[in-house]
Design goal:
With about 325 residues, this protein is α/β, with parallel strands linked by helices. About 30% of the residues lie in helices and about 30% in strands. Strands 1-15-2-3-4-5-6 form a 7-stranded mixed β-sheet. It has a 6-stranded mixed β-sheet with strand order 7-8-9-10-13-14, with helices on one face. The chain has a two-stranded antiparallel ribbon with strand order 11-12.
């Protein structure tokens, strides 16, 4: 796979606890062929390991099965623990135990309930540990999409601790609803990891797909408004005549594109990010701090369609 690099955003100590060396693996999976795709991932992991230290590897939505599975979801979905074991096994096979964090989108079977999920795990010589599983909350069921017909939606957006700082997982359409990055940032997230499988649509200026331009604007605005890094991993390739747009990217807390992949083909993007930059960005544009102050008043608005507290409903 071709590798693309971004320079250090600041002259920081590369060994500082807040610095995270990210590698995005933009995959082009063979639809439904989990074993084949997993073997191919081992080769990508080997390439990453040969080219210098990496702290976090991020893969797209449905990275090892393809996205448009429909009823085949029920055959290919795995439990979170089984998916984590396969990812950890691939990493250990590739480099023998060098510690790393991995985030990957997959179809999850949770005891007979199926979700479009993403798992975040740590891997080392002593084994692996799941830090968090996010279940996609907004399931597109329009146009070419049919997720809600086969899947159940997630019920909560959580922020979790990593060795670099607080992180949130959002999957594809989750990010299109601006309240999701907002809630993640208010809860303390400094990095949003976004696995995605986005089909291309429309034509923008200079022949660029309109959907790619919209995604770039969406992610840039979310990063700048909340002072967060966004690591976006896009699926590539064609499934049933639908072209997935790849275009994986890293955005800094001011909304600047640090690095972006082409829309077609497999590649690896590498970028070191320093989460301390979030503090500087938030100080220069304190939108998140302002929101934290105003949010309680917004949520007390009785015209909002929010659940009533039990004591309110009882007239107390």
């Amino acid at each position: 796979m071709k590798q693309l690099y971004a320079l250090e955003p600041v002259k920081a100590d590369p060994d500082a606890a807040s610095v995270c060396r990210v590698a995005i693996v933009q995959t082009k999976p063979k639809k439904g062929a989990l074993g084949v795709n997993l073997a191919h991932l081992v080769k990508a992991f080997e390439q990453i390991a040969k080219d210098g230290k990496t702290d976090l590897v991020v893969l797209p939505e449905a990275a090892l099965t393809g996205y448009f599975l429909e009823g085949a979801v029920y055959e290919l979905a795995l439990s979170a623990s089984a998916m984590a074991a396969k990812l950890a096994g691939a990493w250990l096979e590739a480099n023998g135990g060098w510690p790393v964090d991995i985030a990957c989108g997959f179809y999850e079977n949770d005891g007979g309930t199926y979700h479009n999920s993403a798992v975040y795990l740590t891997v080392g010589k002593r084994g692996h540990e799941i830090l968090h599983v996010h279940r996609k909350m907004f399931l597109p069921t329009y146009g070419v999409f049919d997720e809600e017909r086969f899947l159940s939606r997630g019920r909560k957006l959580s922020v979790f601790e990593t060795r670099f700082g607080k992180v949130a997982l959002l999957i594809c359409e989750d990010v299109w609803h601006s309240i999701m990055p907002t809630i993640a940032a208010v809860k303390g997230a400094r990095m949003l990891v976004v696995p995605s499988a986005a089909p291309g649509r429309g034509i923008e200026h200079e022949g660029e797909l309109e959907s790619i331009a919209v995604w770039r604007s969406l992610l840039s605005n979310a990063a700048a408004e909340h002072g967060v890094f966004i690591v976006y991993a896009g699926l590539a390739g064609f499934e049933g005549g639908k072209g997935m747009t790849g275009s994986s990217a890293v955005f800094d807390p001011r909304g600047k594109v640090m690095l972006e992949a082409p829309p077609l083909g497999e590649c690896i993007l590498r970028a070191p990010i320093d989460l301390r930059e979030c503090d500087v960005a938030r100080a220069s544009l304190p939108l998140l701090g302002d929101l934290s102050s105003v949010l309680p008043d917004l949520l007390l608005d009785d015209e909002l369609p929010l659940p009533k507290r039990r004591d309110d409903a009882a007239g107390r």
